[in-house]
Design goal:
The chain is mainly alpha-helical. It folds into 2 domains: about 40 residues, no CATH class; about 60 residues. It contains 3 helices and 4 strands, in the order ββββααα. Strand 2 and strand 3 form a beta hairpin. Helix 2 packs antiparallel against helix 3. Bound molecules: zinc ion. The site of zinc ion (ZN) has 8 residues, from loops.
Length: about 110
């Protein structure tokens, strides 16, 4: 197993004794048999949940400012404001994605 983690809490067990207890939650593990561990990669959705949340937030902001501009009197500034916030959120999305890629690269060595 490349990167065994605790089956209970996901604590990274590589570099620890071949068998023992998880320092994080105390669950027993055995790296030789794989008991109490999991080397399964997280699904893509889980790995990128933060990025996806930020992306969703940006879409919501855009959508709301678009809807508000339809009913509001100051449509142009509403849209500009929405674009500004959505832009900031999209920048955060990009940073989040890059850091997730970096984490993944580190995890895969
Ligand atoms: Zn644990």
């Amino acid at each position: 197993m490349d990167h065994p983690t605790c089956a209970q809490c996901g604590y990274e067990l590589s570099g620890l004794a071949a068998a023992g207890r998880c320092p994080e939650c105390g669950r027993g593990y055995d790296l030789d048999t794989g008991q109490g561990t999991t080397a399964r990669r997280q699904p893509w959705l889980v790995r990128h949940i933060r990025t996806l949340s930020l992306l969703g937030l940006a879409m919501v902001i855009l959508g709301c400012s678009g809807l508000l501009s339809l009913v509001g009197r100051n449509a142009v500034s509403l849209v500009l404001c929405g674009l500004l916030f959505a832009g900031v959120t999209l920048a955060a999305t990009l940073l989040s994605y890059l850091s997730e890629k970096e984490d993944q690269r580190k995890a895969e060595g």
